[in-house]
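User: Structure please.
Assistant: Input sequence and predicted structure:
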Amino acid sequence: MTSPDNQSTGPGDGKLIRWVIIAVLCALLAAACILGYLGWTSTDTKVPEAGYIALVFGVVLSLLVGAGLMALVFYSSRKGYDEPVVLIQESEGDPESDRGDERSPH
């Protein structure tokens, strides 16, 4: 089956592209893991205990901030804060707009 611009739109066309994308992403993940391992083990420098404590503190703090922001996203979505803004037009004969001159001095 072909579309008007002579491109194939059969059911198997997207499967090859999907597998190529998955293969590329897996290759990038493997390369990142190998580079991380080589970077971690390439030096003989010892990390002091304070460095590990700072690392753990940073990871925990980052996870807390991420969880808090996600909670705010869900909260604002549930409460309707993410709805589009609707402009409410004031009518021409609004009685509250002319009230400034009619107020009593009491």
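Residues 46-81 form one domain.
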